[in-house]
Every structure is written in structure tokens, then in C-alpha cells.
């Protein structure tokens, strides 16, 4: 069985700092991490490999080469093959162009199932997995919280999904794109001691525009169909506020406020 | 005449109607009193009589399909692609629901058009109309334009836009007969409605807790009950498994507009504040006087949230006992 995991490395946004005085976001020196939803996808793939040793797991990512140390970490965890789609020409690609590049690679591969995350914490559009599925003419399900591992074979599996209103259980035939959510709680394993210092460079492959036979005009800003024309930081208009403490006076101030506004009846 | 299509899901019909407000803001150049002129609206839905939508839209396209499966977005896309090509819409709007978020990206590929996700604002600036959406988990807002020749296409965050226009349109109904979907790759085994006791988006008083009140979180419900409100939570509390995702406020949770929002031990990082729209009064209780949420508050209590909560509950109980 062959599982392809399409993943993205993202800035660790939880550690962004925000300068509320100047209304600016401080983005410098932020480390890159594997997007949390995508990490669950890889974790589940590795779990399958543990259960069925004949399973092979391949990770595909589109990223600048500075990401290589993170990719090596995945190889060290047991991912059989890592494909890094990297080219200066890719930068500035929107989701339309990004899904084009990924689909171009994937359309030449033989696989049973594609795993991905649902949301990425940086862009958070959720477009790429669905767009890959559309380009490859596959079905896709997102927000996967649970896969019934015993049902997972070469032809299909059963997944549990939660949205706002329902808990949904579906049986999906392969090939398909299954998009996990971090609420699934699938955790990446620890690195085995013997893999700690091993050289995994032979299992990592970098592919460029040329390798994928993509014309430069099909990717980057030129190949994109949306454009970011401006970015804003949210403006906060400070209210005329009152500051109190937790003493009796403070309790009274809050109490009076609530009563004044008719909120205590 | 601009033709605008809104995709309607059975469970979210009114969320679809609210997207008429996006259409109005996009084409009315920010004058709040303008009605939508020069625009023709189309509501599109599968297998539904749509009586309750009468008057909201200029047109309703009712697609009938025998074995329609809302969760098979590959098939839904194939059908909608035909509808879109027949009607040649200028704008396509889809609510950001579970299905909408799987559908829109596929349809954008099928129609070779650019897509903007989770729009929260329409901005007119220097003659350019931008679709504004949060990025980096809500820490930054990006203004986006479609550069393709295809329709302007977006998913829209729920509960951000509210349509308050008239319901007096003469709605024309169009029937669209769709072929059955090809293949049967996804089969529904079960569908269980979630036990959601209350939707915090409908609440006018929200008592919300964050990391600073992790231990005393359960006590928030006492205050909520006293004030006739409901409990909400920040992402930290939800991620810690203390509260359900359903009551999470913020970028990755819900957008709420209560009359009163009391934030206990919530720092108020921008992705949390992103979930507060048109809140009338905010009271925040926080050890850190510099906590970002305090800059939005009418009243700031500087100190331990659990201690203050107990004292406030005591004070209100006292008052209620005396006045009853």
C-alpha cells in the first residue's frame, strides 16, 4: 500500500508577537514547523506503516530549500521518501497555482490514497487539498477526526468527521484525498535511537520547474488568479475605559456597571 | 447587469441569505443606504422547495437530482459547473461551512477562477474593491483581488455579514434537472446531530474564560446563569480539553455579537478578538493589565480572574436575595 502525504511547513504563528502600540506584526525570526493538521496526516500514515509493514509513506511538500532540515526530520521518523518541490519560480503562487504544481507531480505517481491536513495555520484557506482532488478527479473529505484503522485496506476505509452540526461517518473508496484535522490527535512518533544520526539524504528528492515540465508562466504570481493587494493589521480603537482591581471597590464597579446597563434583573 | 450567485445549503439557508449583504457592499460603494441596483441575485440549491427564500432573491435555481449527496463534493461540483456555465455569473458566494469549504476550491478550479477564502470584510480603496480575509490565524488581514477573467469567487465567514434589506423581490424560480452523479465512492454510514445545547452566536450575554481561569472555568456557568447568558471559551481552554469547540470564540472558533462579553483570564490575542463583532460592552478581568483585550474593554479588572469571579457571584447573589 502506498500513501502520499501532501504537507506544508508554516511559520509557528502561535509565537508571533504583536506590537499593539504600532499595530504591527513581528514576523522576524519565527521558526518553521510542520502544519499541525498535516502532522496528524503523516502521523496516521506512519501508524499504518507500523501496522502493515509493507506500507510505504511518501511526503510531498512545496517549499523553499531552507526547509530541508525539517524534511530530514520526517525521513528520520520513518517516512520512506520525501519530495520537495522547490524553485524560485514557485514563489508568490496562490492556491490555484500551488495546487497545479502539486497535482502535476501527483498525476504521475501510483498510490492508494493521498493524506493531507484540513487547515493550515498561516494561510488557512483549506483550498489546496480540495483543489488537488479536483485536478486529479478524486473525492475528498476534510475535517477527519478519526479513521477506523481496522477498516483501512487497499480499497477503502471508514472515517469519522465532525462539523458544526453533525458527527458523520463515511466509507470512502480509494484513491481519495483524506484531510485530517489536528483534533484527531494523531501524534508523530519519536525518532528511533538508531535513526538519530543516520544520513537520510538519499531518500529526499528535490524537483524543480523543469523536472516537472512546468512553464514559468503557469506558476508564481503570473500563474496565480488572485493577488494580495494590501495587508492590514487590525486597528484597535481604544475605548474610554475604567481600570479597577479585584477588591470590594472593583466588585462594586462591575456590579454597578452591569446593573446600570440593565444586565442584572 | 451583474449576476451574483449564492450557494444555499439546506442546513444554512439563512446564512446564505446573509451573503446578500456581501453583494450589496461589493456593488454599492460603501453607501449603506443603497439597495443593490444593477445586480441580479441568484440563490442556487439542490432538491428543496425554497419557499422561505421567497422575496430575498431575484431568482432561485432549484436543481433536482435523484441521488444527490451533499457530502460528495466532486459530484456537486460537476453539477454546479454546468449551472455556472449556463448562467455565466459575475460573482459566486459560498458560506464557509464544512461543505462550502470543500466545494468552493473545486468549483474555482472547474471554472478556472481565483478564489478568496473566508472573507470577513469588503473594502473599497482607491477605486479597487478588495476582499479582506484574515491570515496567520487572524493576526493579519489581507486585501485580495481576483486577477482572472472568471467570476469573482469567495467563501464568506459565517455570522459576519447580516442582510437587513427588503424581502419584497418578485422571485423567479428556475428548475435545473441534473444527471445522477457518476460513481459512488463515498457512502454515508451514519449522521448524528450533535448535542449542541445552545449556539453562542445567539446569545446576548457571554461569560467567557481563557487560560487565566483554567481551574475555575466550571464556575463561569454560575455567573452565566445569574445573568441569563451562556459560557464561551478561548482556544486555549478548548485545546486543553476543558470546553467544547462549539463554544470557542475567535478566528478558529465562532464570531459572536453579544450585548455583553465578559472575558475572564483571556489575554485577547488578535485571533480571539477577531471573533468579537459589534459587541456592545466588554468587561475583562486579567492579571496582566497590558493584556491586549483590555484595550477593547469598557471596564478592566486588574487581578486574578477566579478570585474576582467568586466575589462577583457573591455580590450578585446578595443583591438578588435582597431584592426578591
Characterization of the model:
- The complex is a heterodimer of chains A (265) and B (324).
- With 265 residues, chain A is α/β, with parallel strands linked by helices.
- Chain A has one domain (2-223): 3-Layer(aba) Sandwich (Rossmann fold), CATH 3.40.50.620.
- Chain A has six helices and 15 strands.
- In chain A, the strands form three sheets. In chain A, strands 11-10-9-12-8-1-6-7-13 form a nine-stranded mixed beta sheet, sandwiched between helices. In chain A, strands 2-5 form a two-stranded antiparallel sheet.
- In chain A, a hairpin with a 3-residue loop joins β10 and β11 (166-173).
- In chain A, α3 (95-106) packs across α4 (127-136).
- The longest helix of chain A is centred in the first third of the chain and has 16 residues, at 36-51.
- Chain B is α/β, with parallel strands linked by helices.
- Chain B has two domains: 2-177, Rossmann fold, CATH 3.40.50.620; 200-323, Rossmann fold, CATH 3.40.50.
- Helices cover 24% and strands 29% of the residues of chain B.
- Chain B contains eight helices and 16 strands.
- In chain B, the strands form three sheets. In chain B, strands 5-9-4-1-2-3-10 form a seven-stranded parallel beta sheet. In chain B, strands 13-12-14-15-16 form a five-stranded parallel beta sheet.
- In chain B, β7 (128-135) and β8 form a beta hairpin.
- The model of chain B has no long low-confidence stretch (mean pLDDT 91).
- At the A-B interface, α3, α4, β9, β10 and β11 of A face α3, α4, β5, β7 and β8 of B.
